[in-house]
Every structure is written in structure tokens, then in C-alpha cells.
Amino acid sequence: MKYRLILAAVLALILAVYFVPGVIISGAVSSSSPSPFACSLEIPLDKSQASNVLVAGQTWERARVNIQNIGSEPLHNITVLIEIPQDLEIDIPSQPYHITKEGQNLEAEIGDLSPGQREGLLLDVKPPASVEFKKEFPLKIHVVYLEGEQQSKQFINIVPPPSWLTYITILASLLLFAGILIAVKHFGVLELFSTVDLITIALLAAIIAVVFRYISKLINLGWFDGLVIAIPTVILMIVALQLVRKPGTATLLFACVLLISIVVWGSQIMWLGFYLAEGVIVDLLVFLFGMDYADRRLTAVVYGISRGAISTLVFYMLYAPVEWKISYAPWYVGVQLALACAGGLIGGLLGYDTAIKMSGARL
Question: pTM (2 decimals)?
């Protein structure tokens, strides 16, 4: 009985140590006053990209260190000291604060902050050329003010560039292209296309690659660029399917779009897989639907949505991190996927009506 009481007392003491505020092991002192500062780091500033994530080998990226007075009293003579990790390059853009740089240490004079006031320090950050695996780089922020001081850490995650994906992408693109060439030669697919068919595909590809892309760059609707370019692209794709009506029409169309883009815009051959993916998925669906060349409104819509979904996923999941060294936020990829599918839906509906009229005019 006596041992049970002793054991119960020990357990009660352990629970008190872990759960009662103000005990040493918890690390919190009940009488301590809350911190008057809130520090946060924003990088990149583009909200469409993953927060606090940079891809190794990326060029300069703008960051902002936010300092806010969350207390009820004004704070005076505020100086912010920031210690930057050695592997990160830092530059100071023009801003209203006096900031000095000595090695990897920054010192900024903020002045006074009234309750609720927030100020931001702008930094240009360049990640290392490469890292073996994902690493966290801490930015140590030390805020000194007349009434005291405060320290905090903010982290930047550097992820390795998917170099292996680069080689796989190039290899897969070349193998796919070689496979298509072999299939074309073996089955005599090109012999199925007449001169009129090839001219039709070339003209439609030129409109997609030059006219639509130029208009997209000229208008620059930001998030809605994918929607703007998807609608007319799908319209012309449906027109090509109904006018040409040959196996491999969509693949040949987008292959021509890439070739024209290489000549006009200087696109890289590495994008071959991206363009072929758009065409191959549509040609596969044409085969699965019993050689239905968008002869029904439903199949036209299915082709348009499928083309939009595949092109968006291939771009944001593979080509964006490989080519542009950008890691997009999942929610942004979802938004762009929805817009691309919406563009495919609208383009499929309009493309079907347009193709029917053009087919009738040709006859």
C-alpha cells in the first residue's frame, strides 16, 4: 500500500512537470510576458509558387522579411540583424531602409513601430547551384529595440533540381519520337496523308504556334493565359481531326507546332515530349472511340479536356521544375488544371461547330 502511494506521487510529479506551465522541463515560464514581435519570411513573393521553397540552380528570387509589432505599446529604435547561411547568395535591392551588409550578415535600421504596424525588408536570394537532397537553410533574425531584444529563425527549403528527370525527359522524348518515326515508316502512315492534308496541318500548326502564342504574350492575362490559349488551340485541333481524318493527325499537328516554335520563338527540342503528349493522348482516344474524329460533340469535348489535362500536368509536374527551376504550389497546379479543362470543354464545343461548318464548306 505504501509503495502504491509512493508510485502515485511520483507519477503525479512527472505529470506536473510535463503539463503544468512554468515548470522547467516545459521550457515556458508563466510569468514571462509575450513577445511583442512577429517575424515571418515570404519567399518567393509569387503566391503561385510553393512557399519557402527554392530549386537549386535557380536564379535570383525576391524575398521579404516581415517585422510586426503585435504588442499594445510602441517600440523604439528597432534594429534587425539577419544572419544568412553561407550557401545562399544575398543582394540588397533598393528600399527605404538603411541596410548594411558585411559578409553574410545584414543590419537594417527600422526605427519605431506603433502597435499593429508591420514593415518588410526586401532581399534578393540566390540558392546554391546544386544540393544532394532537400535541405533547410535557417535565417537567424535578431531584433534589437530600446525595450529589449528578440531572436527567431525562418527557414528556406532548397530542393535539388530534378536533373535525373531532365535526362529521362530527353530520353523519353527521343525514344517516343523515334518510335513514331519507325511506326510511320513501317505502317506507311505518311502515305495516308495527301498534299492537301499536310498543307492543312501545316497552316493550322502555324496559326497555333505563331498567331495564338503572339496574342497570348501580347494580352498577358496571368493566371488565365492557359485558358486563353487552350480554347483556340482545341478549336483548331478539332478542325484538323475532322478535315484530315487520318490516324496520327493530332500528333503530327503538335509536332509541327513544335518545329515552327523552334524556328520562330527559339523553343528547345527538349519540349518535344510535351508537344507529343498532347497529340498522342488525342490520337489514342480517337482509336479507342472507334476512329471517331470528333464526329460527335461529346467526343470533341472529351478530346479537348484530355488534351488540356495532359498538357497541364506534364508541364507543371515535369517541365516547369526541369526547365524553369520553379516549384509550383499544388493549389496553383489545381487551378491551372481546372482552367485548362475548362478551355478544353469550351474549345471542344466551339471546335465541333466550326469543324462541321468547314467540312460542309469544303464539300
Answer: 0.61
